[in-house]
């Protein structure tokens, strides 16, 4: 995967797109609508760059204040591959540096700077809240539990391995919706402190399919997410 680091952005480091099961190595990506505009205009890229420059120092300060000892040297990158569905997510590089990644389709679909800022705040909140490490722990616990049950029943090595894979997937999803709401809440704080309107920014949810409240779903209902944003915003 080819990334373009925005040259005009500080070395700061962010969830939008697929419906596949989340990898234990990163929080579940935020889902967006199917096919829309996939190539941002020059004005949209400039707006994205301005939002990044504004959001980066606020996210870093919040990270250092809330998570002592955590790497808060965020790096924001843009995936420039054409024809991809809108996507944004937070991950870590090999050295543990937090990466906030956004692709061109996401930048093109965001309708204003508040939506750009809110998703950026949401992604940085995943890192500050330690969701990757917590998701890995849940996946490991699920793999051990289901694999152990399979072993006790006398299953063969192939069946045990499959049970471990299933357990890891279930474990990774167990608290996924809670993680999203936590990121929405902290993302609201970061967004507002950077001077943007988080309630207006969270309207980005109206562009994505409502996942409802499915068992082992990766995302909470859109209405619940909006309730969280409004509640936290009103408390600030």
Automatic annotation (TrEMBL):
Key words of the record: Hydrolase, Metal-binding, Metalloprotease, Protease, Signal, Zinc
Native source species: Roseovarius aestuarii
Protein name, entry field: Peptidase family M48
CDD domains: M48C_Oma1-like
Stretches assigned to the Peptidase M48 domain: 50-229
Pfam families: Peptidase_M48 (PF01435)
Signal peptide interval: 1-21
GO biological process, one term: proteolysis involved in protein catabolic process
